[in-house]
Amino acid sequence: MAVAFLSAQRSKDPSSQVGACIVSPENKIVGIGYNGMPNGCNDDLLPWNRTAANRLDTKYPYVCHAELNAIMNKNSADVKGCTMYVALFPCNECAKLIIQAGIKDVIYLSDKYHDTPEMTASRRLFNLAGIKYTQFVPKRKKIVIDFNSINHTGTIQMTE
């Protein structure tokens, strides 16, 4: 989950930075993604607004979710049987991608949109497809990466 959160830092979305990390059954990272605009589309020329009078002036018709990007950025032949760690419970569109890709487990941190129709559809799809989804319970409250540590080797401080 920490890798998913780290990748989320790359997102230019000012309101929702989401990251995803796919791991093989051997727990090796095989894909990472974050929410952003499609390749070749300048992030500065498309809107990042959550609301606007015209839906075309919001981010929603354009942004690619972290789950999509993690699947597309995979570094293996496929992701069948893998587990996806994602900061936010997947929407119905991402649920369809996850199912089609053959991912078997989804571990998410936040489910803040639980009662929306999109999330209800996601759970329905996951249940029908036999995809296990589990809310992540952190063992630590934060992980700090200090790039200014002694000897410039970089240290990671984990706190409870």
Task: Jot down its keywords.
alpha/beta, 5-stranded mixed β-sheet, 23% strand
Shape: globular
Nearest-integer average pLDDT? 92
| H-E order | HEEHEHEHEEE
Structural class: alpha/beta
- Which ranges are low-confidence, i.e. pLDDT below 50, for 5 or more consecutive residues? none
**Percent range for helical residues?**
10-25%
Number of helices: 4
Distance between the termini: 16 Å
What amount of the residues lies in strands?
A: 15-25%
- Main sheet specs: 5 strands, mixed
What is the β-strand count? Answer: 7
What does this structure look like?
With 160 residues, this protein is of the alpha/beta class. Helices cover 23% and strands 23% of the residues. It contains 4 helices and 7 strands. It has helices at residues 2-8, 66-72, 92-101, 117-129; strands at 19-23, 29-34, 83-88, 105-110, 132-135, 142-146, 155-159. Strands 2-1-3-4-5 form a 5-stranded mixed beta sheet. Strands 6-7 form a two-stranded antiparallel sheet. A hairpin with a 5-residue loop joins β1 and β2. α3 runs parallel beside α4. The protein starts with a helix and ends with a strand.
How would you briefly describe this protein structure?
This protein has 160 residues and is α/β, with parallel strands linked by helices. 23% of the residues lie in helices and 23% in strands. Helix 3 (92-101) packs parallel to helix 4.
